Amino acid sequence: MTGVPSPDAALVLFSGGQDSGVCLAWALENFARVETVGFDYGQRHRIELECRRTLLENLRARFPHWAAKLGPDHVVDMTGLGAISQTSLISEAAFVYEKNGLPNSFVPGRNLLFFGYAAAIAYRRDLKRLVGGMCETDYSGYPDCRDDTLKALQVALSLGLDKRLVIETPLMWIDKAATWALGHKLGGAAFVDILLEDSHSCYAGDRTKRHAWGYGCGVCPACELRKAGFEKWRANAS
Predict the structure, then answer these.
(1) What is the pLDDT of residues 158-169, one digit of tens each?
(2) CA–CA separation, 13 and 226 (whole Å)
């Protein structure tokens, strides 16, 4: 979606990570009004809840034309999900792959519940678009990030609410390098600087180490994807 912004209003599932940060910028370019929602589900990397606030503050300060469109931020308490999930995103377990081929960072039902709560907010606030940073091109294999899953979910939510909602996934078919490139296209070097300094993607919640690609432990799956994508983007841009 490009060109003249849609008059529709959007709700961005905004964790405070790189992908959701780029999705937020994309939504601000493409819709007349944008709100954000974050989720506290007892995640190991709870630092992202603080980072998302900082990122929003700096986005408003450095991009006045986006700030004019940016509405309220919502935070939903979903700690009950953490209580029933035995994954490395909740506990201090090492990041490994299970027998079914999925990484143990997979939180069953997480995105399904995220969109359910987001749809409830959107219904009351007349927000027609739900925007998420799910990707099937360069990801950890989570089944609730697949395009088919989200298309089916869009139908179910629209039927269940008797109100048409559209799930937008602008990163679905691009890799992490292209995500960095999209961020640069949307907001230039200033926005990339915000992503590097303020966004958080590391599963371990480590913000003690600052790399060229941002903060993180450097060895968890999320850091490996972010690092590889950044290096590929820089190499392609040079």
Answers:
(1) 999 999 999 999
(2) 19
Which of 2.40.50.140, 3.40.1190.20, 3.40.50.620, 3.40.50.10330 is the CATH number of 6-201? 3.40.50.620
Q: What is d(CA 155, CA 104) in angstroms, rounded to the nearest whole number?
A: 29
In whole angstroms, give the CA distance from residue 49 to residue 97: 26
Size of the chain, expressed as the number of residues it contains:
238
Helix-helix angle 47-62:18-30, to 10 degrees: 30
Question: What are 34-45's pLDDT values in tens digits?
Answer: 999 999 987 767
Counting as low any pLDDT under 70, the low residues of the chain are 1-5, 44, 82-107, 139-140
Global pTM value: 0.89
How does DSSP classify residue 5? P
Residue 9 backbone phi and psi in degrees, to 5: -105, 150
